[in-house]
Amino acid sequence: MSNQNKNINPNFKKANRIKLNAEDLTKKLLEGNKMQLSHALSLAESLRSEDRKIIAKVLSNYKKRKTKRIAVTGPPGAGKSTLIDSIGNHLATQGKKIAILTIDPSSPQSGGSILGDKTRMEQLINQENVYIRPSASGTEAGGVSAATMECILLSEMAGYEYVIVETVGVGQSEVAVSDLVDMYMLVVQPGSGDELQGIKRGIMELADLFLINKADGDKLELAKMSAKAIDASKSLLHPKAHGLKPQTLLYSSETLLNIDKLTAAIDQFFIDIIDNQFYEKNRNSQMSLWLTREINKSIIETVEDIPQIKELKSSLQNQINNSEAFPIEAGGIIKQAIEDIFKKSS
Amino acid sequence: MSNQNKNINPNFKKANRIKLNAEDLTKKLLEGNKMQLSHALSLAESLRSEDRKIIAKVLSNYKKRKTKRIAVTGPPGAGKSTLIDSIGNHLATQGKKIAILTIDPSSPQSGGSILGDKTRMEQLINQENVYIRPSASGTEAGGVSAATMECILLSEMAGYEYVIVETVGVGQSEVAVSDLVDMYMLVVQPGSGDELQGIKRGIMELADLFLINKADGDKLELAKMSAKAIDASKSLLHPKAHGLKPQTLLYSSETLLNIDKLTAAIDQFFIDIIDNQFYEKNRNSQMSLWLTREINKSIIETVEDIPQIKELKSSLQNQINNSEAFPIEAGGIIKQAIEDIFKKSS
Prior knowledge:
Two copies of one chain form a homodimer. Chain A is α/β, with parallel strands linked by helices. The first copy, chain A, has three domains: about 1-60, Single alpha-helices involved in coiled-coils or other helix-helix interfaces (Up-down Bundle), CATH 1.20.5; about 65-275, Rossmann fold (3-Layer(aba) Sandwich), CATH 3.40.50.300; about 305-345. In chain A, about 50% of the residues lie in helices and about 10% in strands. The first copy, chain A, has helices spanning about 1-20, 20-30, 35-45, 50-60, 80-95, 145-155, 175, 195, 200-205, 220-235, 260-275, 280-305, 305-320, 330-345; strands at about 70-75, 100-105, 130-135, 160-165, 185-190, 210, 245-250. A seven-stranded parallel beta sheet of chain A has the order 3-2-4-1-5-6-7, sandwiched between helices.
């Protein structure tokens, strides 16, 4: 009876595996199949090496194109989702294909704002040209992992030329997301200089475009003042690697103020960085960065599994529990141990 | 001539080294010397292994005491600095010794808010019982590193019984800082439910105390509503590891509303967690975490220096530059290479 069960289960697994076949998945992706794209993104985010191998195979069919990867970041309440809704809708009606990936780092278990609903992209949900992935949060601290880069690549394989990566709320992802995209858009709501203080120089220095959102009704005048404050502080920022000066634009998701200027600014930015070769250089260095991270992760996992290192680690742990040592000394001890093992092998 | 120079330089270095002698530094720290504490913190944050060795020696004299490590976090504009100024002043006049360490993660080069001044702790600056370290930002992403933990330990060696760790602005440090402290205080300003949306569940779940700051004048009524909104959302949070329910308090740095309640709440929190042994357990697991991080850092640095791994990494780099591979495959290749080297040695 239990033997029979054993026979049934492997068959079940095989049936599942056929469903996940890399060639079929690649074919479906290249056809732009949304359901299979969602499936591929889940595999990319999976921790099972089996799943990641399928994605590695799928990605071997990735062809470089001049896609546009854009981060939309900003403090909570800046109206990022409605902004993406309006601009995405505008682009989609022009026949452009847009994928929207949301990164939500601060609560791996639960995700999302505690008092808020998740999706305010009402117009986009029914757009054929738009793919929305509500939470592409990685499994690593910061919510941005190599898997997020793979999600971008997979979306592009499925034909999406704009990939918008939205960071949700206050989070660690605001800096990390810059390692994924070509263009960094910082969205703020109209506010006094005092409120703009909250936007850190580090974030400001990432911005390729400052968007003052909600520039409508009562807030229009305040928005203009905010634009001036931001423009004034730009002189304090280091020059960008691509050599272009970040623009400041007023915007309103309600009145669609400057929507044409905004899409034109995005397109012009890409023309300029492709032209001056920043686009290519930046993508290469991003790939190098992800390579380094993947390598480092693998180094740690593999070395920690070596019996001598495992033992040493648990002895250090004991010493620290007994207050006989502090972590500050551990690095040197581990280094010595690894070097000793390698000396023996060479 | 060049030989003479060689003779002079080592002497110079020796003279410097005498200044940094671990025993003398320990003695000065235990006497509570602020200048030498600053010096010790700089050594802890230094990347030179020589400096870190001195700190390891100094820390070997660390004696466990029931100190209070408190994080003060919250969105920009919540008034964290003035809050710390008023509460620190209150405690200092009661004869308590307080160290304040500020973590500013988002701009490693420049630090600080772009439009703001750094220190609004006007009362504290002249307090004998208070030590302020304006930026204890680590060298690692997130601004929180093992060095920050060492800074806490060194401050405690210098006699500070309250160590307040303030995170500056929107940043990755808000989650990371919870690995450093016993008590996590989340400061918000009075706002509507909509604004409170911006406070992520992940951050709310860290909080041991919710402080609604600026509860004065016009804002008092709004502050009361905010308190209700927070209290309502508490039911959605997972229970805390220490089993205590997080309190909500209104506060004003101007009118000092509830200052006695606040300090009493802090003291009671510590009595309770010492009593139920969370205090000890939590500190042990924090130390384990820092141990793991130090070990991982050392593993990467040491293994990356092994010639075979170095070569392999650069070959993977080339393949990625030529779009022949994606980082997703690198992990498995590196794992195999490390295992092969270790098999030879055993």
